[in-house]
């Protein structure tokens, strides 16, 4: 009888250990930020332009932390890509403070604000404007969440 109780105790203990080890880990701050960035964002304006910008979007994906840009030529035609901050596609990472998105290939985009609930994202970077030979200036992009 004592042997059966001992075996049942070990069996119960192993179930407790197995079930507790299956508990889902909380996402890290970086994972939360990447989840906020996830989706397609339309670039609707830049502080250096007099008019709205259309036809350019950036899609961030969680899987393999990749990005893709559509309408890259419109971005270049607006003289916003002299230092090739944006490329057609690649991977991205966040810095330790989670406020800079580093695109590879591409450049660094500082996250000035991010609110997926109201669909607003503001990114900034340094680049020559309006000509590639001009001194770098701070360019701030306004983006709206699509999906």
Structure description:
The protein starts with a helix and ends with a strand. With 147 residues, it is α+β, with helices and mostly antiparallel strands. Helix content is 24%, strand content 38%. The protein has 3 helices and 8 strands. The protein has a single domain (26-145), classed as Lipocalin. An 8-stranded antiparallel β-barrel has the order 1-2-3-4-5-6-7-8.
Provide the descriptors you would attach to this structure in a database record.
single chain; alpha+beta; Lipocalin; 8-stranded antiparallel barrel; 3 helices; elongated; signal; Lipocalin-like domain-containing protein
Q: What about the largest sheet?
A: 8 strands, antiparallel, barrel
Which regions are unreliable across 5 or more consecutive residues at pLDDT < 50?
A: none
Helix content: 10-25%
Provide the residue-averaged pLDDT.
90
Query: How are strands sequenced across the largest beta sheet?
Result: 1-2-3-4-5-6-7-8
Task: Count every helix, treating DSSP H or I runs of 4 or more residues as helices.
Answer: 3
CATH class: Mainly Beta
Radius of gyration: 23 Å
The CATH topology name reads Lipocalin
What number of structural domains do the residues give? 1
Strand content: 35-45%
The CA-CA distance between the termini, in Å, is 63 Å
Architecture blueprint of SSEs:
Blueprint: H1 2-21, H2 29-37, E1 39-46, E2 57-61, E3 66-70, H3 72-77, E4 89-94, E5 100-104, E6 108-115, E7 120-128, E8 136-145
Antiparallel strand pairs: 1-2, 1-8, 2-3, 3-4, 4-5, 5-6, 6-7, 7-8
Signal peptide: 1-23
Keywords: Signal
Organism: Marivirga tractuosa (strain ATCC 23168 / DSM 4126 / NBRC 15989 / NCIMB 1408 / VKM B-1430 / H-43)
């Amino acid at each position: 009888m004592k042997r059966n109780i001992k075996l049942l105790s070990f069996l119960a203990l192993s179930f407790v250990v197995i079930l507790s080890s299956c508990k889902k880990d909380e996402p890290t701050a970086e994972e939360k930020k990447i989840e906020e960035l996830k989706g397609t964002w339309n670039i609707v304006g830049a502080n250096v332009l007099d008019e709205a910008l259309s036809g350019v979007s950036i899609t961030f994906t969680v899987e393999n932390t990749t990005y893709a840009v559509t309408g890259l030529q419109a971005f270049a035609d607006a003289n916003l890509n002299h230092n090739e901050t944006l490329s057609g596609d690649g991977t991205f990472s966040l810095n330790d403070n989670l406020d800079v998105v580093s695109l590879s290939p591409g450049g660094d985009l500082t996250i000035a604000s991010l609110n997926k609930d109201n669909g607003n994202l503001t990114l900034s970077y340094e680049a020559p404007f309006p000509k590639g030979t001009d001194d770098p200036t701070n360019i701030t992009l306004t983006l709206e969440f699509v999906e």
